[in-house]
Amino acid sequence: ISKLSSEGENFKNINISIINNLYFNNSNIDVLNYDTLTNEQKSSVNKFSTITNFEGNFYGNGHVISGLCVIDSNSEYVGMFGKVFFSNLRDFRIENSYFSGSNSVGALAGYYSGYGSQVSSNVVKNIEIQAKIQNGKTSGGMFGRATNLFCENVYITCDVSGKYEVGGFVGELLLYKMKDIYVNSQVTAIDTVMTAELNRHFCFGGLAGILNGDYNSIENNLDNINVNSKILASGCTSGMSYVDADGDERTYYKSYGGLFGYFNFGAPSDGLIHNFKNIKLYTEVEVPNSNLEYSY
């Protein structure tokens, strides 16, 4: 699949099913902690090439996908999949896996986009993930970015580090219906200096780095969301000044939260509704308290 993807195949409307467990590295190799391996151990790790664009359906039939290792510090949209459009992804477990990229990094996909209100047309369901995601921008345990996401029965155990918009489940979330989500995450903020060219939200959350509003009639729902997270940002500076594109001096802060690092609400008058129920959080936040601006 990866090879065909590199040749331009996007698998549109094609159903792919796996009938056995898939092991990309020997089970005795600790791919999950690739960054702690010796150089000799790293040389024995088989690297996986991201499936760049995917528009089919992927059915795991309850099988395991183990030992994925993607390392590309210059690439955007890094994960098992790079970009996923209008797809069912269901019934499998990703374990002992490691992903590192420059932007939009997640164990399942760097970017996911569904069909909007057509709930039955594209669903992410019955997935477990055990992975480490490192060094990216807009990164999460499952997705880097996700929009029009209909997601149910997901279990994630992850260690995610990044420069901005980083979450245990997703870096940036926009338009969603999510139910029965369990996240056990450690989120680490990498110190980064704001510039006029960058102009991003420095936000870190146990579930999502940033929840963005939009002008859309979709009713967004979170139901039975369970997050156990530790957010580490003790080495980060905040309250720093920078010069924006207009030449004006501004001050930026970094924000952290057990559920969201930053919540860009939108407004009911725009047709945007957020419904939250059965939310359970346990969060430990280690930050320089004098620089803490927001928390959710």
| Mean pLDDT score | 86
Structural class: mainly beta
- Evaluate the radius of gyration: 19 Å
Low-confidence stretches: 290-296
- General shape: globular
Question: Percent helix among the residues?
Answer: under 10%
Q: How many E-type strands?
A: 20
SSE string, helix = H, strand = E?
HEEHEEEEEEEEEEEEEEEEEE
Distance between the termini: 40 Å
Proportion of residues in β-strands:
over 45%
Q: Largest beta sheet, briefly? A: 18 strands, parallel
Number of helices, where a helix is a run of at least 4 consecutive DSSP H or I residues: 2
Polypeptide structure, described:
- The structure is a single chain.
- With 296 residues, the protein is mainly β.
- The chain has helices at 2-6, 39-43; strands spanning 15-17, 22-23, 51-54, 57-66, 69-78, 81-85, 89-106, 109-113, 124-140, 143-162, 166-167, 170-189, 203-205, 208-211, 219-232, 240-243, 249-252, 255-257, 260-263, 273-286.
- The strands form 2 sheets. It has an 18-stranded parallel sheet that branches. It has a two-stranded antiparallel ribbon with strand order 16-17.
- Residues 290-296 have low confidence and may be disordered.
